[in-house]
Specification:
By secondary structure, this protein is mainly α. It has eight helices and no strands.
Length: 227
Amino acid sequence: MTRLHLLLSGDAAAQRRSLATTNAPSFCTNILIIIFGAGIYGFTVGIWRAPLQSAYTAIKFPLMIRLTCAGNAVINGMLAQILGSGLSFKQTSLAILMSFAIAAIILAGFAPITLFVWFNAPALASADAILGHSLMLLTHVFVIAFAGVAANQRLLRLLETMSGHVRTGRTVFFSCVAGNLFLGAQLAWNLRPFIGSPKLAVQFLRDDPVRGNFYEAVWRALGHLFQ
């Protein structure tokens, strides 16, 4: 069974057998899928702003995913063992990496659709540039959310199968997802921009990438909303 077929089949039993024989090629194959799948999609994220921004985002998008996996590897592995999932550190890392690889494949599949939206959205140089930016932003939020939900559904089924108990599998799943969301949101803040603001210059990173954090920005936005 090829790696792509294994990831997309949704066969939790086959994925469980794959995790039982974790090795370096398994990790490398999933990482390559993330690089190419998320890179292709990342290109479509930044293309509305400028070709250079699309190249930057094609690099940063898969980088953000890999850093999220690496940053949470130890915590997720510890939680999986403490909660009695039966997964080792290596197996937990590969299971989460597999879920991100599935998301990357789904995102790559959506690339032609997001390119179609970009082609028909108001251009950067038009009077409706703000509308174009908002349209691209909402499109990508929806697509990324869909890919994340689909990939995490597969991860949940795998953890339930591995743990042998639905409640344990779900507890491990929500613990892992919470950690990934927490770190992923912050990394997205530090690695901004992705789409690129119509009023700001094209940059690989902002001049102050480590200043502030995602959660402060959300808090300020809520404050402005309810003033």
